[in-house]
Amino acid sequence: GDRGYFIEPTVFVDVQDQMKIAQEEIFGPVMSIIKFKDIDEVIKRANDTIYGLAAAVWTKDITKAHAIANNVRAGTVWVNCYDVFDPAAPFGGFKQSGIGRELGEYGLQQYTEVKTVTVQL
């Protein structure tokens, strides 16, 4: 694609928190490199955005991976992988990255309508 808003695979370095590429969702083969000092800083910065579709964590420390996954406000967190889907697992974002879920039992719920009928006999 040489037309439209296509972005070639790109790595942005020295990205700062206030930059548009750090604050907005980019759907494409794009990576923003942001330096950090510790895990608490990573979590705070990851959550300091209006979006929360997905996140990925690469680490050998599974305890650290779980700590990050539990604290990052994203609908999906991949650990040591990316873009892996299972039709049985729900997918959807937090905050302005979506309402509701696709896939899994949660995804089926959007096609149902719950009704309560109470009869006193």
In a nutshell, what does this entry contain?
Helices cover about 25% and strands about 15% of the residues. It has about 120 residues and is an alpha/beta fold.
Task: Give an account of the 3D structure.
The structure is a single chain. The protein is of the alpha/beta class. The chain has a domain at 36-109: Aldehyde Dehydrogenase, Chain A, domain 2 (3-Layer(aba) Sandwich). Helices cover 24% and strands 15% of the residues. The N and C termini lie far apart (68 Å).
Number of helices: 4
| SSE topology string | EHEHEEHEEH
Name given to the CATH architecture of the domain at 36-109: 3-Layer(aba) Sandwich
Uncertain segments? none
- Envelope shape: extended
The percent of residues in helical segments reads 10-25%
What is the name of the CATH class of the domain at 36-109? Answer: Alpha Beta
**Using only CA atoms, what is the Rg?**
18 Å
- For the biggest β-sheet, the strand order reads 1-2
CATH topology of the domain at 36-109: Aldehyde Dehydrogenase, Chain A, domain 2
Mean pLDDT: 86
Could you name the CATH homologous superfamily of the domain at 36-109? Aldehyde Dehydrogenase, Chain A, domain 2
- End-to-end span in angstroms? 68 Å
Q: Quote the beta fraction.
A: 5-15%
